[in-house]
Amino acid sequence: MQKAAPFLLRTIKRYWRKVGSGLIFFIYVFISSVALVLYGPYENVRSTVIGAVLTSRHPWYAEYFYTPAALAKYKPVTMDKVSEGSMKINNFSAVHDNGIQVIPLSTKKYNGSLLVVKDPKRLHITVTKHINNVGQTVSQMVKEDSAVAGLNAGGFYDVKGKGTGGIPMGITISHGKYITGSTDGKQPVIGLTDAGALIVGKYSYQDLMTLKVKEAISFGPQLVKDGTPYLTDRDGSWGVAPRSVIGQRKDGAILLLAISGRGKNGVGASLLDCQKIMLDNGAVIAANLDGGYSTELYYKNEFLVPPSNPLGERYVATAFIVDRSIDHAD
Fold first, then answer.
1. How far apart are CA 111 and CA 265, in angstroms?
2. Residues 150, 320: contact at Cβ < 8 Å?
3. How crowded is the C-beta side of 57, counted as CA atoms within 13 Å?
4. How far apart are CA 289 and CA 269, in angstroms?
């Protein structure tokens, strides 16, 4: 028994030496990897990581590793990077195609879906019924509107910062009714006219009334203008994350895009990734919507793209809702 005790003690010591060596090696690899990403020769990787941090809910983390002057190089493009709003818009009143197409998307970086709604007049903005208090989930909004699909829309402010999503950010118009936001000066707008035209740009409230805009929210940046890319490589510093985007083809069809990320079905997409998807699918105009944990695409009582939020659906202030067709063929 006495001989066994030293042997057991030596065994325990060897075990903990191995554990300690493994832990030291892990810490070394982790620190080396972080250093390689942040200070190594791979500029694309570095800009993607820093961009993701700067557009997250904790952008100050980047300040531990870079000076303000160094971070200025990676400053994300702002949400109000949109063109001056045009007063010459299309008219899709004659479009009466109830078709909806689902296009699955899958790459090494992300998975997602593109919902093509042939008649743009089927879309409207739904606002949380608990405005200035708490938001609602997209699926709740779809069900309460007896609709067929929904995609989260604009940004929002939280009451006392509790993540409740109760206050829409910027101008909000739903079913032709003014809901919230300033009516002074021009501001970034993503909206739909009563004739089904998607507008993206800086507009005054009076401009919106003149154009007969019946649905509107504020967000950005713009991704496509007149069928050409609006952002350049220098604007791609939002990193990768879950994304929501709305666009329109020249035939009037609305493109609703949602991409998963943050470790759930991929790491996510950049703004430039989304821009390319829109262009590849015929968008002549497109804009970024609120993304991150807000992103989800709901269709026919199920998620085409479920929320990346580990806690489930996020409470949001607004959503683009697709109404059922008149004959309820959906």
1. 6
2. yes
3. 10
4. 13
- Separation of alpha carbons 51 and 133, rounded Å: 31
Say what the pTM is: 0.82
Determine the number of helices (DSSP H) and then strands (DSSP E) in the chain.
Answer: 6, 19
Residues in the chain, total: 330
- Provide mean pLDDT across the span 9-15: 73
Residue 164 to residues 13, 144, 317, Cα–Cα distance (Å): 52, 19, 9
Q: Residue 189's closest CA among 78, 279, 83, 321?
A: 83
Contacts for 207 with CB less than 8 Å, ≥ 6 apart: 85, 87, 186
Give the angle subtended at the CA of 193 by the CAs of 188 and 196, to the nearest 5°: 120
243 and 111 Cβ atoms separated by less than 8 Å: no
Q: Are 125 and 172 in contact (CB under 8 A)?
A: yes
Would you call 89 helix, strand, or coil by DSSP? coil
pLDDT at 127 over 70: yes
Q: How far is CA 141 from CA 124, 147, 165, 184, 279, in A?
A: 11, 8, 14, 29, 29
pLDDT higher than 60, residue 214: yes
Which residues, in sequence order, are CB contacts of 142 under 8 Å at separation 6+? 148, 149, 150, 298, 319, 321
Residue 319 CA to residue 219 CA, distance in Å, equals 12
The pLDDT score that the predictor gives to residue 42 is 46
For 44-102, what is each residue's pLDDT tens digit? 555 566 666 655 555 655 655 666 665 555 666 778 899 999 999 999 999 999 999 99
In this prediction, residues 257-268 reach a mean pLDDT of 89
3-state secondary structure 180-199: ECCCCCEEEEEEEECCCCEE
